[in-house]
From TrEMBL:
This is Kinesin-like protein. SMART domains: KISc. One of its GO terms (molecular function) is microtubule binding. Residues 456-793 form the Kinesin motor domain. PANTHER family: KINESIN-LIKE PROTEIN KLP-3, PROTEIN CLARET SEGREGATIONAL. Keywords: ATP-binding, Chloroplast, Coiled coil, Microtubule, Motor protein, Nucleotide-binding, Plastid. It holds the Pfam family Kinesin. It comes from Marsilea vestita (Hairy water-clover). Residues 1-36, 52-85 are annotated as: Disordered. SUPFAM superfamilies: P-loop containing nucleoside triphosphate hydrolases (SSF52540). InterPro entries: Kinesin-like_fam (IPR027640), Kinesin_motor_CS (IPR019821), Kinesin_motor_dom (IPR001752), Kinesin_motor_dom_sf (IPR036961), P-loop_NTPase (IPR027417). It comes from the Eukaryota. Residues 52-62 have a biased composition (Polar residues).
């Protein structure tokens, strides 16, 4: 450590000399002092100085006089002080420390050991103080250094944060400046356009002012001109007056000339008379002729003079006449001129008036333009105000944006957390939904199994939509529908209520009830499992029962060509073909045979026979049941099918052969029971297993009251046959439901054919089709009652027909 003993003044300044440059510690200490205050740094320095100065002064005192200087003795007050008189810290330099270290102890005498040892003790004390001071100084310096490092770190951190903040602020400011610039640019553009508008208006105003000026000048000119013309007119008038006066005088002169002329002519006559008198007297007075001749010559001369004078007068008269003429012409001209000028004046006056009007208009326009310009100026000032307020709003908005952005940042982090929660919840929800779906499937399967175990015939009820000819409510209104669907939990989707005209309500419950809104797909979803089991080797029978026109054919067949309206038969076959192909991957190969028959008037007809009418072929088809519960119909056409297209053409062929006719209740009424059968035999050689399933899809003929069907003849016979077979079906169902010993299957072809389905080991499903038509209420009630009985029938547990070969 370098220490310098300086005067208080120089110690305070610490000049930047070489020594100082070489003393980084001192520099650091100075910084430390600036940061922590003088108290921290000054104390150890003072102590060092104290140690040094005390020893130094002792040395000086001893060295110089050899006597103890009272002012430098250890016990002296000044010596005890921690700083010098000025209180300024003294910095000890290397030389001073050297001097302190090189200090020699001198006694009063050579043998003044006591004195020397006292000095030594004092010296040691001072050295110790010096060392302690140095140690303390070092410790404080270390502390200071640590503080500084810590502070430097803090400062750096603060600096980085401040820098970051500044950068953000700068970015935000740049953005807001950009936005402001854009806004200002837009506003300046607006301002420019306003200014250009203003300029245009000002230019227009100027040009209008110029036009006005020109118009005013023109008015002035015209006014001057008109004044001149007026003056000219007045002059002309005066001239006319003068000319009239001249004319008058000339006329007077002319009259006097004429008087003179007549007087001269009178005189000439008198002269001629006197001449004759003279000539007469000539003779008399011949002698006096020479005298008279001379007198005569004089007279002749007088006459000549008179004649000349007369001629002159005549010439003068002519001149005057000419002048008169000329004056007259001039007068006329003047008059014309005056007329012309008056008309011109009138014209000018009119023009003037017009100009006045025009200029008046221009002035109005100018006034308007002025007002417009004032308005625009006002608007401009307003817009400037608006701009100002917009700017302040912008600032406010920026401030708000700032706040919002801060809030947004918070919200974003919040939002991210919430998103994560939402994602988690969505995932859980989809899992739950999946579980619900699986549960629903399982529930369906279990339900089917329970039903299978119970061995009941399952019944689905389907109510078709209203058709144009249907009536919706008993009283013809639409407030109380005939069919209602209970919404209680146990009956929802299973119950149906039929309201009779008297208001009597009949409630039924089935395995499923489909309302008019249910489409073909909704129906099929519910039976697809059942169809599937035909491939597993079960006998499956689905038949549709209901009054005519209630939708049996629509349910069973629908419109095979329309993807949405395809019924149970097309959909089932498609599913079977598809599933059989899929099972092919597991080693299964299937053979399928389709057959279609109808029972018409208690006669079986092969709908796929090359010639469909049995009457023409004369074939008698008989139904046979083997001990295994398999049914066959003799001579029935069996067609191998492998795909839906083949079945589709078979269905078309069959539909052409089917007994269909128009009744009062249905345009296309099926007059027979139609049975489509698909025999399925599957073989899996890899597991040596064989399955034989049967799928019977039956569209029964519609039950109908003879009174309502309004048929006769053959149609009546058909209806009776249909009703008889359906009654037999009812009897069979009743017997099964009552668990009677004898079941009358043989009472009709239909019941006999359906025997394995009704009383055997097949999976049987009946659709009871209902019409919502109020006119069909009683038929619907019958159908529903019948269906309820069917639902109660226990037909035994379905059995899978499988064989394990070998
Ligand atoms: N669910 C339904 N949706 C739309 N229309 C239907 C529905 N059910 C039946 N229909 C229509 O009602 C009319 C009668 O239906 P359908 O021919 O199927 O009755 P049916 O019970 O077979 O009559 P029948 O016993 O006389 O043959 C048809 O025009 C059919 O298109």
């Amino acid at each position: 450590m370098v220490m310098q003993a300086k005067t208080p003044a120089s110690a305070k300044k610490i000049p930047f000399n070489k020594e100082n440059r070489d003393a980084p510690h001192d520099k650091k200490r100075k910084i430390g002092r600036d940061i922590f205050g003088v108290q921290v740094m000054s104390e150890p320095r003072v102590r060092v100085r104290q140690a040094f100065s005390s020893v130094n002064s002792r040395q000086q005192g001893t060295g110089q006089s050899g006597e103890k200087d009272p002012s430098t003795t250890p016990g002296n007050n000044q010596d005890k002080k921690m700083c010098d008189d000025a209180g300024t810290p003294v910095i000890m330099n290397k030389d001073e420390i050297e001097a302190l270290l090189n200090l020699k102890m001198k006694g009063k005498t050579k043998f003044d050991f006591k004195g020397k040892s006292e000095q030594m003790m004092e010296y040691i004390k001072r050295l110790r103080m010096c060392i302690r001071g140095l140690q303390e100084s070092e410790a404080s310096l270390i502390l200071e250094k640590e503080h500084l490092i810590k502070q430097m770190h803090d400062e750096r951190r603060d600096h980085t944060q401040t820098e970051e903040l500044l950068r953000q602020k700068q970015n935000e400011l740049e953005n807001s400046i950009l936005e402001l610039k854009t806004t200002i640019g837009a506003l300046e553009e607006k301002l420019k356009s306003l200014e250009s508008q203003k300029q245009t208006l000002l230019a227009e105003r100027e040009s209008d002012a110029i036009t006005l000026k020109k118009a005013t000048a023109e008015i002035h000119r015209l006014t001057d001109e008109s004044n001149t013309h007026l003056r000219e007119f007045e002059n002309a008038n005066q001239q006319v007056l003068v000319l009239q006066d001249i004319n008058k005088r000339l006329q007077e002169y002319n009259t006097s000339l004429q008087t003179y002329n007549s007087k001269l002519q009178n005189d000439s006559a008198a002269v001629a008379e006197s001449l004759s008198k003279v000539q007469k007297e000539k003779a008399v007075v011949m002698e006096t002729l020479s005298n008279v001749r001379a007198h005569s010559v004089v007279l002749q001369e007088q006459l000549n003079q008179a004649k000349a004078s007369l001629q002159e007068c005549a010439n003068e008269k002519k001149i005057i006449m000419d002048a008169d003429e000329r004056l007259k012409a001039e007068l006329q001209n003047a008059l014309n001129n005056i007329k012309e000028k008056s008309s011109r004046i009138e014209l000018l006056s009119a023009e003037n008036a017009m100009f006045k009007e025009t200029t008046g208009k221009s002035a109005t326009e100018l006034e308007l333009l002025n007002r417009k310009s004032h308005n625009l100026e006002g608007k401009y000032a307003l817009q400037l105000e608006e701009l100002k307020s917009l700017r302040s709003q912008l600032e406010l908005a920026n401030h708000k944006i700032q706040i919002t952005e801060n809030a947004l940042l918070h919200h974003r982090s919040d939002g991210m957390e919430k998103n994560m929660t939402i994602e988690e919840l969505t995932r859980r929800l989809s899992e739950s939904e999946e579980r619900v779906r699986e549960g629903e499937l399982l529930r369906k399967k279990l339900h089917n199994t329970i039903l299978e175990l119970k061995g009941n015939i399952r019944v689905f009820c389907r109510v078709r939509p209203m058709l144009p000819d249907d009536e919706s409510s008993p009283c013809g209104g639409d407030d109380v529908p005939v069919i209602q669907y209970p919404t209680s939990t146990e009956l929802l989707g299973h119950g149906i209520e039929l309201i009779q005209a008297q208001g009597q309500k009949h409630t039924f419950s089935f395995d499923k009830v489909f309302g008019p809104e249910a489409g073909q797909e909704d129906i099929f979803v519910e039976i697809s499992q059942l169809i599937q089991s035909a491939l597993d080797g079960y006998k499956v029978c689905i038949f549709a029962y209901g009054q005519t026109g209630s939708g049996k054919t629509y349910t069973m067949l629908g419109n095979p060509d329309d993807i949405d309206q395809r019924g149970v038969i097309p959909r089932s076959l498609e599913q079977i073909f598809k599933a059989s192909q899929e099972l092919g991957a597991q080693g299964w190969s299937f053979q399928m045979q389709a057959s279609m028959l109808e029972i018409y008037n208690e006669t079986i007809r092969d709908l796929l026979a090359p010639t469909s009418k049995c009457e023409t072929t004369g074939k008698q088809y008989t139904v046979k049941h083997d001990p295994n519960g398999n049914t066959s119909v003799s001579d029935l056409t069996l067609v191998e099918v492998t795909k839906w297209k083949e079945v589709s053409s078979l269905l078309q062929r069959a539909s052409q052969s089917r007994s269909v006719s128009k009744t009062a209740m249905n345009e296309q009424s099926s007059r027979s029971h139609c049975v489509f059968t698909l025999r399925i035999s599957g073989l899996n050689e890899s597991i040596d297993q064989q399955v034989n399933g049967v799928l019977n899809l039956i569209d029964l003929a519609g039950s109908e009251r003879l009174s309502r069907s309004c048929v006769s003849g053959d149609r009546l016979k058909e209806t009776q046959a249909i009703n008889k077979s359906l009654a037999s079906l009812g009897d069979v169902i009743l017997a099964i439901a009552n668990k009677e010993q004898h079941i009358p299957y043989r009472n009709s072809k239909l019941t006999y054919l359906l025997q394995p389905c009704l009383g055997g080991d097949s999976k049987t499903l009946m659709f009871v089709n209902i019409s919502p038509d109020v006119k069909s209420t009683s038929e619907s009630l019958c159908s529903l009652r019948f269906a309820a009985k069917v639902n109660a029938c226990e037909i035994g547990v379905p059995r899978r027909n499988t064989l394990t070969r070998g």
